[in-house]
Input
Amino acid sequence: MTDLLLAAVALIAAQQGHVAVPPSQRGAPASAVPTDTALGDYRQRHALIIGIDEYADPGFPRLFHAAADAKSVAKVLIEDLDFDRDHVRLLLNRDATRDAVHEALQDWACDKTRVGDDDLLVLFFAGHGLTREVDGKSRGMLVPSDGRMSSESEAVWSSLLPMSELEQTSECIPAKHALFVLDCCFGGLAITRGPALVLAGMRNRARQIVTAGNAEQPVLDSGSNGHSVFTAAFLEALRGDADLDGDDAVSFGELYNFVGRRVEAETGGMQTPLQATFPDHRGGSVALFAREARREFKSPEVRLASLQTTLVEQLADLKTLSDLSVARHLMDEMESLWPMLPKTLPAMRSWLSRASELVSRRSLRAEQLKRVRQEAYLKQIVSGVLESGEATEPDWDQVDPVVRWRAESLQEVCDLLGKLEGGCDDVRRRVACAESIEELSLVRARDAWSAAIREIGELHVYGGLTLSPQLGLIPLRRDPQSGLWEFLHVQSGAPPHAAKDTSAWALEGDTGIILVLLPGGSFGMGAAPPSVDRPVGSPNVDPLACLNEAPIREVTLEPFFLSKYEMMRSQCAPRGTTSSVIGAGQGGSDDSSGPTHPANNVSWNDCVSILRRLDLSLPSEAQWEYACRAGTATAFATGDRVETLAGFTNPAWPAMSTSERRFWGCGDSFDAPLIALQSGGSFRPNAFGLHDMLGNAWEWCMDEVALARLVVNLRGIGTVHTVMDRAIRGGNINLVTAQVEPRSASRSSERADFRSLSLGFRAARVLERAR
Output
């Protein structure tokens, strides 16, 4: 089966399992954007019309209108639309066997001696349609008159006709234009979702299909005038009622618009005709022309009369409001479809099923909008507000408020469905990532995990930790300097490459997040000024300690993962998706917004959203300070004096001299008074192998910080309010206050929506324990 067919079935994969069809139902769906055709004609017109009421196997319920529908379609094509009787092949009931239909599709319709390159071929099928689940995907089947049921009331699939045969036939038939019409249950399984069509009219190849309902809708076998609801509307369209622009041709767009509106209105939305194209469509549009003798110019008054909506059609228009509400809900729900892991797959697939069904109505809503706009335009021509040919759009300031409301509502629906269609593409990519994550991180890396687990269990620094493979991670190496193990986060990017002539990593724009497995342990958190009991030189004693850093307390942490570098800008969209929270140019100056530079100018809310998509989180303050200290109890992770930071951080004192730049490890390109943020790895790491824990960018932490703020009103009366900010740690590049901010215990806080060019973050992850 071709990839295109798989894509076709994926469009309606929400249809689950075999569905028995009640006697009064048939069923079907589609997608694509219809287009009108330019006037023209065909050298010859052909039709294969199939209608089946009676089935040899009583397991298939008898239908009552399918054969009559087929006869009426053939009659209208011959008597009203100039189809030569000799070129219309009619297969009814017992004549419509599997072999007969197969022969008609593969031989009769594809016979180049009969069907020419400038011809039109119409295929109409009325009868039963079924689905079958194969490897979790729905396969559509047409039921010929000799189709069989097994003793377990399941169809014998070899006796049926795969709907994929229609796609194969569309590629083989020589006709320039082909129209497939399915009035059967689940006929939409024959459809693949194509791109928006380009108006090419009669010049280009067309392979268009319209179905009686969507993939989850059984369609009614009964309707008006002895026909099914769908075929009754289809016959009216063929007889000219769908010709809304008065050019004596019913284009595919007009046909689908008329039939779709009529069926949806008469069934109260229970049955929604859909349309699409087969893969070999080339942008043309089927057109059905009236007899030459019946072609008459239609005045604006006549055309307007044909556009006047009935009450039931206006009520159907109101369904667009429900589409609008559902689309908004789906767009909001899409943000919850993270992370890209197997546990999220059921929710993503459910969302895709609902969203695809709604998006499939986009072309119908577009045609409704076109009709409303045309109605408003013709009303102004008839009333004399506009002269014919004066404009192509109505004067909306003078349009009836109800008509304007209908147009605005439909426009909003169309716009939102367009966004939702893009959302479907994004969620499909998420599904693909979630489906592959176990293979990438656990199966292919099985040997790497075995080696890492064995070595980590033997290392004293990890205290005999029993590690289990971590979904989404791949072991990289044991850092030769820190002695700690490092892992690649698969969904954030590619594996890193070792820098030339060094053991460091050479970061590139596609490098994924590198997580360091930090050992658990206890440490003194916070700082306090010297006292009689704790003189200078004591653990966590710092003359510059602030009140919010006390008291010093003993904290014990379990092992956890922390990113080796500050989060890079290129890592903020999960690999294989386009879902970055950070907008273009958000990084600020050109020299600090490259792909390997810190993802700065992000709020706490941004960080949480970015990391949730990757199944990561911000570190707690305790985790951050533990990682920053890396076993030290001094003011800085490098010692008690600020000078010890030289080479480990990125200072920016005003008017630094050449010797000062050299002392701090900065190149001559660093211009005072503000040095730009530097790429990860530009400075030396701490004892845990972590870079830029002090300086470069401030880093958000998960914790809330309660602050009392004085608010003074216009009368000068102040009120104290408690507000909850979020903690930030590590200081930044602007070291005018260098001796205060980049200390291990230094704390600050900001609102969750605050952004700054010198504020970034790094990722943390919980260690999943072996079970």
